[in-house]
Amino acid sequence: RRAAALAASSRPGATADGHRVKVFANFGKLDDVAPALAQGAEGCGLLRTEFLFLDRADAPDEDEQAACYGAIAKALEGRPLIVRLLDIGGDKPAPYLPIAVEENPALGLRGIRVGLARPEVLSTQIRAILRATSSGDIRIMAPMIARVEELRDVREVLLAEAAALGVAAPELGVMVETPAAAVMADRLAAECDFLSIGTNDLTQYTLAMDRGNAAVAGGIDGLDPAVLRLIAQTCAGADRFGKWVGVCGGLASDPLAVGLLVGLGVAELSAAPGQVAEVKATLAALTREHCEIVASEALEASSAAQVRALAANLLRKAG
Ligand code: PEP
Ligand code: MG
């Protein structure tokens, strides 16, 4: 099994019967690149750019951001890098971007709402990313999208800045982290280039359980059938417009979830850097048909516990 896992990590991600599923890694700093590549990561499906913005007195300027994104793109040696636009808010505060104290930060000014409320922050970051595109295969995605208009607003800034710099605008993806985005996935897919499901937030908002609240966080389970139904709806909506769907939340790192996600139609899994080899090995032990059968059973389940039992059975059969 160890030898098979090692062999799987050096090959492109795929099921045992050759159905291709890209296995990417999530980065929160430049130092994440090397260990992820050592595990066989095929790209970065989520660069959490917050690392550049938090724990400091002043915002990073355009030059600093461009150098940082460019360095990560270079280290990836041509593999895709999906840069997430700044995702801060009341839950992840930055001193130079004061956000009024909110009673309910999870439902407040966070994610893309911050960038749209502070156009100079969004434009500076987008210009920096555009300048870094000469260093690799860079794409952009927007966090916490809840409405199609937000995507349009980001697209407008991206196109304007790209035109001003005289460079081509890279692909623009939407993070599906709100039930609204999952339900509206077809309308979003009509206007974006790809969708990436942030299962951490999608689960929090679907179950109405605050991921930061110890009293309820222990009960949050991304394998809840309610979440799986939203993932299925996202894949169906994206498919109508020929767009691919990835998962960059915690579920992508969970061997129990891998088969279900593939069976639901997910084409790219972006895992924690240390989990990439395990995800590839898990994929290599499953067939697409088995994944699809278990996914359709999971959509009929009435509890996360039942989904977990189905998924564990799939893994056991795969050996
Ligand atoms: C998510 O919500 O699943 C996600 C990937 O974003 P973050 O965990 O950074 O909020
Ligand atoms: Mg999130």
The bound ligands are:
phosphoenolpyruvate, magnesium ion
> Helical content, roughly?
40-55%
- Specify Rg, calculated over alpha carbons: 19 Å
SSE order: HEHEHHEHHEHEHHEHHHEHEHHH
Q: Structural class of the secondary elements?
A: alpha/beta
Family: Belongs to the PEP-utilizing enzyme family.
Subcellular location: Cytoplasm
Protein name: phosphoenolpyruvate--protein phosphotransferase
Description:
This protein is of the alpha/beta class. Helix content is 49%, strand content 12%. It has 16 helices and 8 strands. It has helices spanning 2-10, 33-38, 50-53, 62-75, 112-117, 119-132, 148-165, 179-183, 185-189, 199-207, 214-217, 225-240, 255-264, 276-284, 288-299, 304-318, and strands at 22-27, 44-48, 80-84, 137-142, 172-176, 194-197, 244-247, 268-271. It has an 8-stranded parallel beta barrel with strand order 1-2-3-4-5-6-7-8, surrounded by 5 helices. Strand 1, helix 2 (33-38) and strand 2 form a beta-alpha-beta unit. Helix 4 packs parallel to helix 6, helix 6 (119-132) packs across helix 7 (148-165) and helix 13 (255-264) packs across helix 15. The model has no long low-confidence stretch (mean pLDDT 96). The site of phosphoenolpyruvate has 10 residues, from strand 2 and helix 10. Magnesium ion binds at residues 143, 177, 198, 200-201.
